[in-house]
Amino acid sequence: MVGTQATSQPTKAPPSLLYMVKQVELVVRSHLDELVKPYGITALQYTALTVLERHDGLSAAQLARDSFVTAQSIADLVRSLEGRGLIRRERNPRNRRELLILLTGEGRELLTDCAEPVRELEERMVRELTAHQSEQFRQALTKAWHALS
């Protein structure tokens, strides 16, 4: 074969899993911010409210950890949510120096209002997965999180 030479291009490595997880996080956060904007909250505030919905009565430090924000950020977040009447703070009866953060009725109502649009967003995210694949995805994410926690 005169004048022809097989050219093989190097195969590009697929993006790392860490990169792909970050891509998913960023697109989810962007959609979530748009979804909760009409309710007057941010995606970070929504996350904090859902944490309190599952574990009411947390300290600010616990809420910060579970909401994936810094201790400095949680102070502003808590003030804002408290100002809107979505959460309240009360003294911990076992440690009077500690304030516990609790979801109010208004906060629960807001989460109820957001539940359907958030569910639709999650369904959209896994739309091309079977129910079994979706459950495997959930389990894989849980295992990955535990491995790094």
Structural class: mainly alpha
Q: Indicate the low-confidence ranges by residue numbers.
A: none
Across the major sheet, the strand order is 1-2
What overall form do the CA principal axes indicate?
A: elongated
| Largest beta-sheet characterization | 2 strands, antiparallel
* SS field, number of helical segments: 6
What sequence of helices (H) and strands (E) makes up the elements? HHHHEEHH
Tally of extended strands?
2
Question: Could you characterize the architecture of this molecule?
Answer:
By secondary structure, the chain is mainly α. Helix content is 62%, strand content 10%. It has 6 helices and 2 strands, in the order ααααββαα. It has helices at 17-36, 43-54, 60-67, 71-83, 105-125, 131-148; strands at residues 87-92, 95-103. Strands 1-2 form a two-stranded antiparallel ribbon. Helix 1 crosses helix 5 and helix 2 crosses helix 3. The longest helix has 21 residues, at 105-125. It is elongated. The chain starts with 16 loop residues before the first helix and ends with a helix. The model has no long low-confidence stretch (mean pLDDT 92).
